[in-house]
């Protein structure tokens, strides 16, 4: 965003240019990060600009939050749907896709999971515009997910989960990044309570559980929490 302002004072023109860029990468969609009031040395000028900017700011905030927590599925509250790159079908989320395409009624040869990191098209739930993966709709301007991770293609309006992306694990997790640490040897995240006491084993959580036969890396409830 570029804001150019010219203030005439005693025949003197003061030019101010403020540039800001919004980069939606594993963050919450906050209007404060997109529209901020520029700092000026003259109080009178600043008061005028604050009033003008506040009008735009409030309007933009209202637009960004339109439909907040009103859309989504049983897995996520979000304001967009995804187009699966594997079968070109539209689903509310990757879990909805996997449940539908691995259903017992689906031909076994056609069953498959979505390659989630390959998702590159989303459909805005409010205006129906299909577009590249991004946090704010290019057509109606709503924030399609209060939490957004470009790497995981994850959108979620329910930020009470305290989502965060772990580069070491390569996925997003819940519980707050301050409450977990990533062990490079075990190659997974553990609770901070286990930081100096967990048994460190190479790739410890990248094996199948002997009980449920699922990969522990995605399903271990105590050491780590997973959302996508």
UniProtKB/TrEMBL annotation:
It holds the Pfam family zf-CHY. Residues 144-208 form the CTCHY-type domain. Residues 66-142 form the CHY-type domain. Keywords: Metal-binding, Zinc, Zinc-finger. It comes from the Eukaryota. One of its GO terms (molecular function) is zinc ion binding. The keyword Zinc applies. PROSITE patterns: ZF_CHY, ZF_CTCHY. This is CHY-type domain-containing protein. The lineage of its organism: Eukaryota, Viridiplantae, Streptophyta, Embryophyta, Tracheophyta.
């Amino acid at each position: 965003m570029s804001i150019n302002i010219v203030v005439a004072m005693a025949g003197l023109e003061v030019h101010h240019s403020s540039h800001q860029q919004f980069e939606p990468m594993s963050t919450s969609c906050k209007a404060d990060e997109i529209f901020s009031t520029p700092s000026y040395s003259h109080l009178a000028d600043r008061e005028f600009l604050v009033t003008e900017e506040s009008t735009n700011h409030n309007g933009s905030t209202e637009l960004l939050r339109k439909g907040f927590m009103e859309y989504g599925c049983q897995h996520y509250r979000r304001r967009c749907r995804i187009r699966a790159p594997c079968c070109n079908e539209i689903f509310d989320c990757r879990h909805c896709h996997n449940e539908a395409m691995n259903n017992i009624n689906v031909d076994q040869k056609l069953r498959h999971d979505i390659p989630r990191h390959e998702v590159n098209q989303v459909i805005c739930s409010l205006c129906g515009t299909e577009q590249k993966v991004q946090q704010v709709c290019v057509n109606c301007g709503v924030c399609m997910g209060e939490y957004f991770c470009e790497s995981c293609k994850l959108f979620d309006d329910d930020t009470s989960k305290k989502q965060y992306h772990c580069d070491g694990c390569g996925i997003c997790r819940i519980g707050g990044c301050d409450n977990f640490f990533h062990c490079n040897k075990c190659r997974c995240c553990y609770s901070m309570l286990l930081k100096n006491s967990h048994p460190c084993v190479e790739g410890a959580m990248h094996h199948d559980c002997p009980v449920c036969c699922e990969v522990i890396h995605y399903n271990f409830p105590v050491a780590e929490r997973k959302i996508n």
